[in-house]
Amino acid sequence: QVQLVESGGGLVQPGGSLRLSCLVSGSISSISLMAWYRQGPGKQRELVAVMLNGGGTNYAVSVKGRFTISRDNAKNTLYLQMNSLKPEDTAVYYCKAAGVPWGQGTQVTVSS
Q1: What residues pair up with 36 in beta bridges, in sequence order?
Q2: Span 38-62, mean pLDDT?
């Protein structure tokens, strides 16, 4: 069964950057849609960014211009580059691939 393993989270000061990675235990070249979600304290899980296999992307309004989603099919990895981080970006971040169960997530904390 294909699995997702997120990494790259941590504690960062406001204005800082992090790059999250999601390693897929199988080929992602045939996966049509991959995405990043997040769930903040006391909040519902929300969609952050989506990437289609053809390269099209879409972002939540709250992160547009600050976050960039990308994928490396050769490394079976999805990325989320996060810049200009804000305290409200604090959340557990999950990647999701169509037809694949959720991973365990990676914690991102933005605080001074």
Answers
A1: 49, 95
A2: 94
Q: Where are the beta strands (DSSP E) in the chain?
A: 4-7, 10-12, 18-24, 33-39, 46-52, 57-59, 67-72, 77-82, 91-97, 106-110
Compute the chain's Rg from CA coordinates: 13
CA 62 to chain centroid, in Å, comes to: 14
CB neighbours of 12 closer than 8 A, spacing ≥ 6? 18, 85, 108, 109, 110
Single-letter amino acid code for the residue at 98: A
Query: What are the phi and psi torsion angles at 74 (to 5°)?
Result: -65, -30
pLDDT band of 33, cuts 50, 70, 90: confident
